[in-house]
Amino acid sequence: METDGIKRNIEELQKKEQLSRKERKRLRKLEKRLSREEGERSRRVTKLRVRIVIFVLLAGIVGGGGYFLIKNASKPLPGKEIADQGREHIVKSAWEKYSYNSNPPTSGSHDGEWIKPGIYDEPQGDGHLVHSLEHGYIVISYNCKKTKVSCSSLVQELGDIVEKKKRRKLIVVPRPKLDVAIALTAWRRIDKMQKLEAQRVEVFIDAFRDRGPEQTMD
């Protein structure tokens, strides 16, 4: 019996001035049944409202996440892409004569040994550095003659960034023939700057560290 029908029956019984024992018993049953029906209806409405709220929240999360994914995906990657020159292993005498297509190089034939993470006081061979890039390293090259700040200050600031990023797969190295103050290199990627921009360096590291063609646990 539907709720409206139960209510009508209750109202008809309540209109009577005097109820028989049987009618009083029936009235109590109808009232209990009405209470159950209304309780069940209330629970159904509550469940429906909860589902609607959950759906709206999920839609917001997914929609928002999708928005940010699309937004981030549409952002240009830092730096400039450089054509791939391959990654063949060659001896030092060969890579010292190799014509890399960028300064510093971002790919190409290289030595069988690579440079480990650290802040170096002396220039390192391109053949070794390119091998590091192949492993997903970021190389931060600098030329103190191209900067307006003292060399010690520049190296200190670069060192602070490297420490902040836990040093992993990060190399800081002087490059006397660099045509700008600082150059960031990853495999097939380069970003040059006339002065240090810490945020820009960190963005480059976050974008390209561990993105080399050869995955290693260095």
CATH topology type of the largest domain? Glutaredoxin
Class computed from helices, strands and strand pairing: alpha/beta
Calculate Rg over CA atoms.
36 Å
Characterize the overall form: rod-shaped
Annotated CATH architecture of the largest domain: 3-Layer(aba) Sandwich
Give structural notes.
The chain is α/β, with parallel strands linked by helices. The chain has two domains: 3-74; 80-208, Glutaredoxin, CATH 3.40.30. Helix content is 48%, strand content 11%. The protein has helices at residues 3-15, 21-74, 92-95, 126-134, 151-164, 198-208, and strands at residues 80-81, 118-119, 138-142, 170-174, 182-186, 189-193. The chain has a six-stranded mixed beta sheet. Helix 1 runs antiparallel to helix 2. The radius of gyration is 36 Å and the shape is rod-shaped.
Which features does this protein show?
218 residues; alpha/beta; Glutaredoxin; 2 domains; six-stranded mixed beta sheet; 48% helix
Give the topology.
Blueprint: H1 3-15, H2 21-74, E1 80-81, H3 92-95, E2 118-119, H4 126-134, E3 138-142, H5 151-164, E4 170-174, E5 182-186, E6 189-193, H6 198-208
Parallel strand pairs: 2-4, 3-4
Antiparallel strand pairs: 1-6, 3-5, 5-6
Helix pairs in contact: 1-2
In short:
This protein is an alpha/beta fold and 218 residues long. The protein has helices spanning 3-15, 21-74, 92-95, 126-134, 151-164, 198-208, and strands at 80-81, 118-119, 138-142, 170-174, 182-186, 189-193.
